[in-house]
Amino acid sequence: MKDKILIVEDEFIVANDLSLMLKKAGYDSCGIAPSVARALELIAEQQPDWVLIDIFLQGERTGIDLGIQLSNMDIPFIYISANTNQTILQAAKATLPYGFLVKPFREKDLLVMLDIAQYRHGQNIKYNLQHQMGLVQQLAAISTKKEASAEKVKQIAQLLQPVLPFDQLFLTRINPRSPARDCSVIKSPSGNYQLETTESMLKLLSVSSRDYKLWDPLGLKLDKQLHCAYEFRKLRMEDRWTQVISDQFGLESAIMTSITDPKGDLYRVAFFSKEKELYNSIHVDLANQIMTAFSAMIDEVFFSKPVAEIKEVKLNQVPASHFYRIIGNSPLLNSVFDKVKIVAADDTSVLILGESGTGKERIAQILHELSPRKSKKMVTVNCAALPLTLIESTLFGHEKGAFTGASDRRIGKFEQADGSTIFLDEIGELPLEAQVKLLRVLQEKEIERLGANQTKKINVRIITATNRNLEKEVAEGRFRLDLYYRLNVFPIELPSLRQRKEDIEALAYHFIEKYSNKSERAVKSISAAALQQLMAYDWPGNIRELEHLIERAVLLSSGTEITDTGLASGKQTGHPANGTLYPDGNQTSIGNQSASVNQPAAGKTKTLEEVEKAYILEILHLCKGKISGPGGAAELLNIPSTTLNSKIKKLGITYEFTD
């Protein structure tokens, strides 16, 4: 007999069909519960190995509520729901399920999802991922950084936004009352976050300190946590502070929760949104979970003193740490190293997540280098660069005559990687038709060439990477949910450079040494003022952007020290001096060379695509339009020319060079 499975589903017909499917497949269907309360009773009685949970159930509590409890009880579970919008998926993800099955589904879909979930559960037991990858741990890592409050708050806001969106976060100390211990975090239209003290907030709103004290913000006894529609209008009438800030910032809904710090001080925390119907009971559950993490870090995060400015920079400074040529010693990066060490020697599928320029391909290479498969070359495939008509042929190969133009047999990338590792970069770009084929390879461990009449068993370890939000792609129907859960067995999330600014100095010196030697320049160090420019910048292009900036600075420096990075002037105007295109700028002119990028509205933060487009344009300038071959842009960017051509087409770049 296979595992005992409890079904938590309030639609009897669906629940009964599930029970029959499970029994037919040899599982022990140990009960059906229509509500969270009944489910907890059956769990105590039956002690199931697995639980299948619908999201919306009888009673006030949802499947998400039950998922939170099951996570705490270490009972694995899978969600079954017809609701796959992004909010639901984000909330479900926060409870750490082992799968998500979308209604309606076939018997085969259920059994495949159970197989995937059991595999993931076995791997998670092995690696103890449940305790390594939670939101609480990430919040704690940020709180221990030696950075100013504003920087910590920005990182926490960016971490919370996908799970619990907000336009304004307000913290006020209720007991003992102290207006000086209140603060607000405001999200700007461009997506940045600003930490405002009581004093700066009152100045912004033209409110006196006396009025603020009399209003006693959110000091009223609140019997509800969720405030939408009528409840938010009622809150506005009862709380003068909510009325003022909602009028000023256009706020339409809120979630209220409380938190007690280690000293016993009681705070009230409010998440405000400009959307009327954004929040629901799932968000309330998430807010309460987040407050558990916040309780130990209020002082360290929201009220810590600014970190002292760097007063001195040592010449020829040695980088903080090396891990297989990856430089950095920040807590978030060390956490990545720990995960790499744990999973490298196994054949487990790994999904590497992170923004463009964070080093996903390098992590994939290290995973291969540390694995028993290292004697064979890792095969790398950039899914974004695959022509739509040739994806299947490229990945799985084809026989001679399989289609028009197939004059010879072709060995596909998976077959080339037999006995080794295949790295599928930008997996989020793979079309749905190819995703189906990939899922079969993962499940059956076999491929079939186009035009062939038999399959071939292969032994391949799969590592994938993406800078996309795959949960959002799933919610919008562009990525298969079953494939997502199959790839997401061991996720490794790479921090952005703005999340580990303590590594910037070491990285800067590494790149100074690299490009000084390459260009035979005498540059050996960077001044304190220039380093401060690097530390103050947000780095939307991450390490790749920092590397290119240092390369430029080395080339432009006339002495032994970099004294100006160009960020200060470029950030203000978008048009740095000397005609050089920096990431903040949108157009430049060097002699008779010219290029332009659509300039965003004033004050708008550039997107990663805009930054990447600016980089490629600049490299094309340096290479005078040459893409491939020695001295070409592809060589300088260290990417295949096919990949560069694909990016040029995707980004809509047109380039002209005039002598």
TrEMBL record:
Keywords: Activator, ATP-binding, DNA-binding, Nucleotide-binding, Phosphoprotein, Transcription, Transcription regulation. It holds the Pfam family AAA_lid_14. It comes from the Bacteria. InterPro entries: AAA+_ATPase, AAA_lid_NorR, CheY-like_superfamily, Homeodomain-like_sf, P-loop_NTPase, Sig_transdc_resp-reg_receiver, Sigma_54_int, Sigma_54_int_dom_ATP-bd_1. Transmembrane segments: none annotated. The modification 4-aspartylphosphate is found at residue 54. Residues 4-118 form the Response regulatory domain. One of its GO terms (molecular function) is ATP binding. This is Response regulator receiver domain-containing protein. Residues 326-555 form the Sigma-54 factor interaction domain.
